[in-house]
Amino acid sequence: MKALLSITVFFLTVCFSFAQTAFEGSIKWSMAMTSATGSSPSGTQLSEKEKADLNKNIAEMEKQMKDPQMQAMFESNPQMKVTLEKQLEVMKAMQGEGGVNNLLPKSYTIKVKDGSSLTSVEGGITASMGDILYQKSTDKTYYIKRDSKTYSVAPKAPAKTTDSSVVTVTATTETKKILTYNCTKYVVTITQKGQKQVMNLWATKDLKQYDVKSFQVSDPGTQTYAAAFKKINGVVLGMEMTHEGQTMKMEVIELKATTLPASDFVIPAGFKEVPYGH
Length: 278
Description:
By secondary structure, the protein is of the alpha+beta class. 23% of the residues lie in helices and 37% in strands.
């Protein structure tokens, strides 16, 4: 699960530039996780004891949030209320049939304009990170939480990092269509500290306006994946990776070229800056 979530974070933190015709518009990705049998992964289901503990914790938190003293604290610190409400929302999501699987995002949308990007997540615990804004003009990544009207600046990756990973990218003859685009399957193998991780990527050369050769990664832990993408000949529209019997699948379900307002790519007026991770 941790390895699969790291891939998710990579997609949400990487900002790419287009060296040919500048693309302006939005790209929507779907996300799903299944087991080897095609059903929801059993490894994400809660045991009966875990369910009982979870229900108990939810009841205690709901009682605590209704306490008059806590209500008074909320009035002086609205951010605390938003944070606790998000935690409660996550806990309740785990009560569902999918268990921990409900914490995964269902989809996310990336808006792109003049080298800047805005990523919005739909569903799952990752949505609590807020929208992710990369501004080309400032070369900074911001996490914007609209509910609490706050934002934080993501730390920049070190200029130099030591990475002993070995990345191998192999093009296959297997093809399929994603949307209306012809895609070729690439097998990516990442070997790190004796452990192998294999991903299947589907890329198309039909979109000539894209040139995904330059990545800017805000999280140093994702540089290995960025290196893999640089070796792909085309625009990646699909990805799947299996780990411990669980398969994460991501695929572009909507691609729109359209003019976007510049106001989408700025910090909203009146939002307060808070430390990263809050």
